[in-house]
């Protein structure tokens, strides 16, 4: 377990699953609200957010959401987030950016249960659902947010068609996730085939790596404080902390990280 990242794939997968199951079944004890790798603004391109004390710990995970959402006005808008996880981003956007309504949707019933018990914010609600089969009528939302979730989807084209259907004309999909360079070329084709116009595309890998560098100690500490010893390494791997295989794949550029603003015209 000490060299988790160097274990063969057939061992890493079950260990990863154990950690993931542990995470979702120890909700109260863990109190983890984000499951993304974060974003650090560089060269003055991103003004430090003025956060409340209670949000300070998760600044870099919040930054990733803020970076994506700041590109269009969401105040007083109806927003859906697909793959909201444990709702930290949904909570941040509803509280700080004053959306009219914000629905967080996730495949995991445990994540949705956690969100429903954790947050009590006017206009914010959570629902279990599948990205590829959104339980909403046509043209319901002004914006759809999708952060570090899409690479899990069995049917990316199905997801994009559903987002397109449920967005109002002129509405936006605010998207970020990791891909290889080849994977990003496929992704772009998928966006265009679904009917979206690409308003902006940005490779934010260096911002993600910088965030992980700064946030690694907190991620490792969280693993050590909140999980039994036998899970510490797989937990650190899951978190992308320095020394993990995931961190290395980012640092050497094998996996890139992209952020898009897409519009339904
Ligand atoms: C890495 S987590 C990111 C969560 C959140 N966006 C964040 O940044 O903290 C990915 C999330 O996508 C969800 N997910 C995976 N496949 C999904 C699907 N087909 N439909 C909806 N949610 C899905 C997972 O349950 C998980 O909560």
Plain-language structure description:
The chain has 265 residues and is of the alpha/beta class. The protein has one domain (23-264): Vaccinia Virus protein VP39 (Rossmann fold, 3-Layer(aba) Sandwich). The chain has ten helices and seven strands. The chain has helices at 9-25, 27-30, 59-69, 88-97, 109-118, 156-166, 181-194, 205-226, 232-239, 245-251; strands at residues 78-82, 101-106, 124-128, 141-147, 167-179, 196-203, 256-264. It has a seven-stranded mixed sheet with strand order 3-2-1-4-5-7-6. α1 (9-25) crosses α9 (232-239), α3 crosses α4 and α6 (156-166) packs across α7 (181-194). The radius of gyration is 18 Å and the shape is globular. The model has no long low-confidence stretch (mean pLDDT 91). Residues 34-36, 82-85, 88-89, 106-108, 111, 130-132, 147-149, 152-153 line the site of S-adenosylmethionine.
Element order: H for helix, E for strand: HHHEHEHEEHEHEHHHE
Number of helices: 10
Oligomer: single chain
| Residues in helices, as a percent range | 40-55%
**Small molecules in complex:** S-adenosylmethionine
User: For this structure, what is the CATH class?
Assistant: Alpha Beta
Largest sheet: 7 strands, mixed
For the record, the count of structural domains works out to: 1
Structural class: alpha/beta
The CATH homologous superfamily is called: Vaccinia Virus protein VP39
Strand segment tally: 7
Summed up:
This protein has helices at 9-25, 27-30, 59-69, 88-97, 109-118, 156-166, 181-194, 205-226, 232-239, 245-251, and strands spanning 78-82, 101-106, 124-128, 141-147, 167-179, 196-203, 256-264. It has 265 residues and is of the alpha/beta class. It has one domain (23-264): Vaccinia Virus protein VP39 (Rossmann fold, 3-Layer(aba) Sandwich), CATH 3.40.50.150.
């Amino acid at each position: 377990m000490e060299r988790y990242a160097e274990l063969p794939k057939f061992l890493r997968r079950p260990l990863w699953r154990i950690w993931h199951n542990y995470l979702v079944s120890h909700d109260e004890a863990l109190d983890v609200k984000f499951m993304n790798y974060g974003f650090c603004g560089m060269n003055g391109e991103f003004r430090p957010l003025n956060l409340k004390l209670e949000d300070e710990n998760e600044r870099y995970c919040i930054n990733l959401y803020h970076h994506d959402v700041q590109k269009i006005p969401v105040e007083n808008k109806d927003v859906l987030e697909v793959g909201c996880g444990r709702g930290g981003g949904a909570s941040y956007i509803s509280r700080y950016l004053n959306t009219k309504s914000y629905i967080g949707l996730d495949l995991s019933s445990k994540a949705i249960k956690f969100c429903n018990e954790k947050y009590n914010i006017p206009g914010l609600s959570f629902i279990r659902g599948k990205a590829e089969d959104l339980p909403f009528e046509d043209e319901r939302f002004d914006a759809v947010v999708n952060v570090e979730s899409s690479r899990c989807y069995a049917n990316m084209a199905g997801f994009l068609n559903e987002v397109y259907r449920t967005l109002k004309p002129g509405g936006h999909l605010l998207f970020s996730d990791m891909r290889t360079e080849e994977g990003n070329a496929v992704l772009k084709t998928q966006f265009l085939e679904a009917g979206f116009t690409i308003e902006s595309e940005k490779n934010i890998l260096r911002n993600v790596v910088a965030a992980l560098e700064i946030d690694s100690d907190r991620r490792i500490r969280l693993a050590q404080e909140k999980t039994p010893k036998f899970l510490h390494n797989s937990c650190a791997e899951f978190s992308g902390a320095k020394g993990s295989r995931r961190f290395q794949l980012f640092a050497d550029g094998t996996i890139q990280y992209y952020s898009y603003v897409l519009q339904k015209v």
